[in-house]
C-alpha cells in the first residue's frame, strides 16, 4: 500500500527454465528486485531452474501472486525457445499483466513476440522503475548508470540460496560460493561478444569499499567462502584492482576468489599478480581465444601473445592456477590458424586449456560476417584433436611448479577434481571423433 490508499504495483521477475541447466544465482534479476525494494515496491523472484518449475506450476505461481508486471530474463539467444515460452505462459496465465523482457537477447528482439508488451534495451534497474511508475513506452533504451554505488546490493533474500549451494562445481575450491559483479561495461570490441547490448562499452566501476562491503555481508549472511567475480572486464583500472586486493587483505575475510569470465591480461603486471595471490585469488582465466596473430586482429582482441606468455609465467610463479579459453571456427579461420591456437595453448604454460566452438550471439558483430568454414561435426572433431594434443603435452608434470600450487589439502583435492573434469571433456570429444571416423569408414563417406 502506498500513500493515499492506492495499491502499490506488484512485480514478478522470472528466470526461464532451461533443461539440464545448473542452478546459479540470477544476479541480474536480484539487482532489479533490489532497486524496486529500495523504492518500496513489492516484488518477487521465481527461478524456475532452482525451483524446478514446469509450465503448469509456473502458471499457478503467476496467478497466485497476481502481479501487475512480469519481468523475464532474456540473456542469451541460444535459449530463445525457453524465453518465448515463458512469455507465453505468463501472458496466458495473466492476460492483464504487462510482460517485459530484458537482457542481451531482449535488446535485439524489438517486440517480435505477441506475448511481450515491452522490451528493455540496456541496464534494467531504472527502466523497470519507470515501468512500475507507469511508463507506457514499449521499447525502452535504458540509460547506463554512471554511479554504480547508487544501486542496492542484489536482493538475494528473495532467492532460494540454499538450492544454489547444493551444486558443487568442480571449478570451485571452497563452498559455499557465489558471484559478485564489481563493474559494468567493456571498452573492448571483440566481434564474438554481445554484452555491449546490455552494459555498453563505457566501463563503470563500484567503489572498493562498496565491493568489499558486499563480500563481507555475504560471508556474514550465508557463510560464503569463495567469490566469483563475474565482471566482463574487472581490471580495466588496475589501480582499483590493487586497492580491492588491499581491502580484502586488510579485512582478513579469508575469502578465496576467481574471475571465471576471464581477466584482461594486458592490465596485469608481476606485482599486481602477487598481490592478487596474497588477497585470495587462486585461479586466473585468460581469454586468449586465438593463438594466431592475424586472427587476433580479425576478432578485434589484439592480444600481444608474447606478453600473454609472460603474464602466464608470472601467475604460475605466484602459485596461481592458470586456464586459457580458446574459440575454434571463426569466420575466415583456416585449419592451420586453428592449429596455431592449439600450439599456443600448449606452449603458453597454462595448466589447463579449454577449447570452444564459436557461438554466435544475437547482437554480436560476428553475426553479420561471412559463415564459418567448418560445420558442427568438423569443429567437434577439431576440438577432440585439440584436447588430445593438449592433454598429451601435460603428461610430463613440472613438479616444482606443481608444489607451489598444492600448498594445502583442499588445493590437492581441487587439483584432482580439475584434472578429472578436464580429462572427461577430452575423452567425450575424442570418443565422438572416433565414432565419426568409424562411421565414415563404414559407409565410405
UniProtKB/TrEMBL annotation:
Annotated protein name in UniProt: Putative radical SAM superfamily protein
Annotated B12-binding domain residues: 10-142
GO molecular function: 4 iron, 4 sulfur cluster binding; catalytic activity; cobalamin binding; metal ion binding
Domain Radical SAM core, first and last residues per copy: 172-389
Keyword annotations of the record: Iron, Iron-sulfur, Membrane, Metal-binding, Methyltransferase, S-adenosyl-L-methionine, Transferase, Transmembrane, Transmembrane helix
Cofactor: [4Fe-4S] cluster
Pfam families: B12-binding, Radical_SAM
Segments traversing the membrane: 411-430
Family matches, as PROSITE patterns: B12_BINDING, RADICAL_SAM
Amino acid at each position: 500500500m502506498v500513500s493515499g490508499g492506492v495499491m502499490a504495483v506488484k512485480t514478478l521477475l522470472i528466470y526461464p527454465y532451461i533443461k539440464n541447466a545448473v542452478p546459479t544465482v540470477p544476479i541480474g534479476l536480484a539487482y532489479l528486485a533490489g532497486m524496486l525494494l529500495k523504492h518500496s515496491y513489492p516484488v518477487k523472484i521465481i527461478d524456475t531452474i532452482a525451483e524446478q518449475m514446469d509450465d503448469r506450476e509456473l502458471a499457478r505461481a503467476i496467478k497466485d501472486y497476481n502481479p501487475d508486471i512480469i519481468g523475464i530474463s532474456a540473456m542469451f539467444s541460444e535459449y530463445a525457445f525457453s524465453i518465448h515460452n515463458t512469455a507465453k505462459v505468463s501472458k496466458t496465465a495473466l492476460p492483464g499483466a504487462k510482460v517485459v523482457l530484458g537482457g542481451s537477447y531482449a535488446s535485439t528482439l524489438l517486440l517480435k513476440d505477441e506475448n511481450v508488451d515491452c522490451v528493455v534495451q540496456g541496464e534494467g534497474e531504472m527502466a523497470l522503475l519507470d515501468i512500475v511508475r507507469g511508463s507506457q513506452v514499449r521499447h525502452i533504451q535504458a540509460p547506463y548508470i554512471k554511479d554504480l554505488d547508487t544501486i542496492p546490493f542484489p536482493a538475494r533474500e528473495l532467492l532460494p540460496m540454499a538450492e544454489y549451494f547444493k551444486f558443487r562445481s568442480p571449478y570451485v575450491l571452497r563452498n559455499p560460493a557465489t558471484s559478485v559483479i564489481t563493474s559494468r561495461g567493456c571498452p573492448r570490441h571483440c566481434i564474438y561478444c554481445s554484452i555491449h547490448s546490455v552494459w555498453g562499452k563505457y566501463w563503470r566501476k563500484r567503489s572498493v569499499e562498496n565491493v568489499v562491503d558486499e563480500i563481507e555481508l555475504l560471508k556474514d549472511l550465508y557463510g560464503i567462502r569463495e567469490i566469483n567475480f563475474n565482471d566482463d572486464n574487472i581490471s580495466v583500472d588496475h589501480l582499483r584492482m590493487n586497492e580491492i586486493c588491499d581491502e580484502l587483505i586488510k579485512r582478513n575475510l579469508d575469502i578465496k576468489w576467481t574471475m571465471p569470465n576471464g581477466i584482461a591480461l594486458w592490465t596485469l603486471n608481476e606485482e599486481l599478480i602477487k598481490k592478487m595471490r596474497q588477497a585470495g585469488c587462486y585461479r586466473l582465466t585468460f581469454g586468449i581465444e586465438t593463438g594466431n596473430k592475424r586472427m587476433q586482429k580479425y576478432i578485434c582482441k589484439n592480444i600481444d601473445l608474447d606478453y600473454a606468455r609472460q603474464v602466464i609465467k608470472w601467475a604460475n610463479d605466484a602459485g596461481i592456477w592458470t586456464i586459457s579459453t580458446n574459440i575454434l571456427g571463426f569466420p575466415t579461420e583456416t585449419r592451420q590458424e586453428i592449429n596455431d591456437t592449439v600450439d599456443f595453448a600448449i606452449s603458453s604454460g597454462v595448466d589447463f586449456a579449454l577449447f570452444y566452438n564459436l557461438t554466435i550471439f544475437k547482437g554480436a558483430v560476428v553475426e553479420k560476417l561471412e559463415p564459418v568454414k567448418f560445420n558442427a561435426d568438423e569443429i567437434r572433431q577439431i576440438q577432440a584433436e585439440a584436447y588430445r594434443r593438449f592433454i598429451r603435452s601435460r603428461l610430463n608434470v613440472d613438479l616444482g611448479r606443481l608444489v607451489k600450487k598444492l600448498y594445502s589439502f583442499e588445493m590437492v583435492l581441487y587439483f584432482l577434481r580439475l584434472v578429472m573434469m578436464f580429462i572427461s571433456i577430452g575423452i567425450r570429444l575424442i570418443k565422438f571423433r572416433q565414432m565419426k571416423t568409424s562411421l565414415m569408414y563404414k559407409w565410405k563417406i
